[in-house]
Design goal:
Elements lengths: L5 H46 L5 E9 L7 E10 L4 E6 L2 E9 L1 E8 L1 E6 L6 E7 L3 E5 L2 E5 L4 E5 L6 E10 L6 E2 L2
Antiparallel strand pairs: 1-2, 2-11, 3-10, 3-12, 4-9, 4-11, 5-8, 5-10, 6-7, 6-9
C-alpha cells in the first residue's frame, strides 16, 4: 500500500544524503589542499628566512660638521651591529675611519690597500697582524684598525653571535658612512 507523497519523501532523503556526501568530500579535498599548500608555504618561508640574515644595523651616535681644523669634513661616531651570517659588501670610506670591535669576531677581506690590526689603547696600540690586498683576516673583540680611502674591503660575521663595532670617522662633509665599490 502506497500513500500519496511517499515517493517524493524517499527521493528527497536520497538526494539530501547524496548532497551531504558530496559536501563532505569537497570539504575534505579543500582541507587537504590547504594543508599541503600551508606546509609548502612554511618550507619556502623557513628556507627564505634562513637564507637571508638581517642586514647590518648602523646607528649614528654623534656627528659634527666642520670641526676645528677640518673644514668641509664631518667628524662622526657610530655603532654597527652585524648578526650571524650577515655580510657587508665591498666598499670604502671617503676619509679616515677607526673601527673598534667591541664584541664578536669579524672576518675582514681587503681587495685594495691594506690595514694594520691593532690591540691596546690608542697611542700605545700594538700591531697584531697586517691584512694586505687579496687577504682576509679575523678581527677579534678588543682589536681595532684604521681604514683609509684607498682601502677597498668587505666584511662578514661567520660566527654564531652578533658583532658590535664602534666607528669614529672624519669623512667628506656630505659623504655617506660607506661607498659601495661597483
Amino acid at each position: 500500500m502506497k500513500f500519496l507523497g511517499d515517493e517524493s519523501v524517499s527521493r528527497q532523503s536520497v538526494n539530501q544524503g547524496s548532497r551531504r556526501r558530496v559536501r563532505f568530500r569537497t570539504g575534505l579535498a579543500v582541507l587537504g589542499i590547504l594543508a599541503v599548500g600551508g606546509a609548502a608555504g612554511a618550507v619556502v618561508a623557513g628556507s627564505t628566512m634562513r637564507a637571508e640574515p638581517p642586514a647590518p644595523k648602523y646607528n649614528s651616535l654623534a656627528r659634527k660638521v666642520g670641526p676645528i681644523d677640518a673644514p668641509g669634513r664631518a667628524l662622526g661616531l657610530s655603532r654597527v651591529v652585524i648578526q650571524p651570517g650577515a655580510k657587508i659588501p665591498l666598499h670604502y670610506h671617503e676619509g679616515t675611519q677607526v673601527s673598534y670591535i667591541q664584541a664578536g669576531t669579524l672576518t675582514y677581506t681587503v681587495k685594495t690597500g691594506g690595514v694594520k690590526v691593532m690591540k691596546g689603547p690608542g697611542d700605545d696600540g700594538k700591531v697584531v697582524r697586517r691584512i694586505k690586498a687579496g687577504q682576509a683576516g679575523k678581527i677579534k673583540a678588543g682589536q681595532w684598525l684604521v681604514e683609509q680611502p684607498g682601502t677597498h674591503h668587505r666584511a662578514a660575521n661567520k660566527g654564531k653571535g652578533k658583532i658590535v663595532i664602534y666607528l669614529a670617522n672624519l669623512l667628506k662633509k656630505n659623504a655617506p658612512p660607506s661607498t659601495l665599490v661597483p
